[in-house]
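Researcher: I need the complex structure. Ligand is hexanoyl-coenzyme A. Inputs:
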Amino acid sequence: MFTPSLLRDQVAIVTGGGTGIGLAVAKRFGELGAKVAIGSRNAKNLEEGTAELRHAGQDPLAVQVDVRKPEQVDEMVARVVKHFGRIDILINNAAGNFVCRAEDLSPNGWNAVVGIVLHGSFYCSRAVGRHIIARGGGGVIVSILANYVWTGSAGTVHSAAAKAGVMSMTQTLAVEWGRHRIRVNAVAPGPIESPGAARQLWNTPEAVQRISGTIPLQRWGLPMEVADAVAFLASEHASFITGEILTIDGGAWLGRGPFEFV
Ligand code: HXC
Ligand code: NAP
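Model: Output:
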């Protein structure tokens, strides 16, 4: 059980923090005492996310940013430092995705997803990493991957390749920045109930039913279940964990084996 002061006075940036899983992370972090900045492109997402966090008694900073633009990312980091005085935690949650056959995927479609997921996570990690290295004292980065980093996944070559790149970046930065006491970890969720993902990836009852049959725990995950794992990795409870990928998918990525009992 988390104590309510687990992240007290820690300053966190959550990219894509106005919706879905990112909003759940922002909310949980606020409940645990963190000061939270949320960053994304769409003003409406930021406004609605901010309103929900305020309703929960928090006072977030919202920053409009496209993580594909390194200069905007640097500006976001500067604004958060100015507003809160420091940054301790980065959550690389922003992503784009859609289902498309690899042979039909345009270069622009590939670039859009790889740009948000892989390049964006690097630009944010670089900017926050520089800040933490300069001020000393350590910090934490947690990236949101997907369980198909282990398996690949038909229809999402752009996302799977980009998430696998972020996985490798996680392990690499864990080694490189360990001496700065920056822990770098990731979570790899399977299907989680979130309107953004539903819109992009499973917008028919048939798709929902087919995916449900692939999950041994026989239900979808909730955004707060991802948020709790992210909070654990960001906290002192995980003080000796770095370069780790925690899968959160009800067992979906595991092979079913040759025998069938259910
Ligand atoms: C084929 C598509 C497409 C689709 C977009 N494109 N959608 N191609 N099928 N469904 C192509 C466009 O035609 C264009 O290429 C290129 O992608 C860029 O499209 P834009 O709309 O101009 O891009 P942009 O406005 O930058 O938007 C990025 C986006 C969009 C990724 C395309 O969907 C987005 O903003 N998504 C953010 C929210 C999101 O995706 N959330 C889901 C995360 S869930 P051309 O060649 O025509 O110019 C998730 C879960 C994974 O990741 C794990 C599940 C287990
Ligand atoms: P979501 O609500 O669509 O979240 C995506 C977020 O990314 C949005 O808030 C979006 O905000 C932001 N974003 C997209 N492009 C951006 C850009 N260029 N710059 C800044 N922000 C950008 O979907 P979600 O399900 O919560 O996904 C959150 C994370 O979980 C993603 O990394 C996703 O890959 C991962 N994930 C989700 C599932 C699932 O089943 N839901 C499973 C595995 C992994 P704007 O549109 O305002 O920019």
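Model: Summary of the prediction. The first strand starts at residue 11 and ends at 15.
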